[in-house]
Amino acid sequence: MGALCISAAAKEMMQGKIVSENSVNCGTQDKGKKKTVQMMCQEYVIRTDTTDYHVRQEKESHKDILPVNAPVELTLSKDKMKFKVNGKEYEMMVVSEAAAPAPGAPAAAMPATKP
User: 18-35: per-residue pLDDT in tens?
Assistant: First the structure.
């Protein structure tokens, strides 16, 4: 797995929006003799003007479910994202990033309509 490269300019405050949330497997925890339990974490997609960032909590202790479509103010530093949602601050790990879809671009999965 390659390291994420985030430019020094990315450390400035940016605006974004939470566009989705999913529960993902983030490891296991021993619960006694020969017993392990799957650990689940929330993974969010935060979209800026140009990039979709997939971020995940680092510790299971973060249990808040953040609202989808909520605006966020964020900064990036290496593989960490710090952001505010509704006045509360969070820090999460950036696990991947991709180019955001162009504004007004049609959804790829939409079927063509017949006249």
Answer: 999 998 888 777 777 778
Query: What SS3 class is residue 106?
Result: coil
* Cβ atoms of residues 30 and 70 within 8 Å: no
pLDDT in tens, 37-91: 887 888 999 999 999 999 998 766 667 789 999 999 999 998 999 999 988 999 9
40 to 27, 57, 60, 102, 106: CA distances (angstroms): 7, 10, 8, 32, 33
3-state class of 10 per DSSP?
helix
pTM score, two decimals?
Answer: 0.73
Backbone angles phi, psi at 60, to 5 degrees: -65, -15
Alpha-carbon span 53 to 97, nearest angstrom? 4
10-99 CATH choice from 3.30.565, 2.60.40, 1.10.287, 2.40.50: 2.40.50
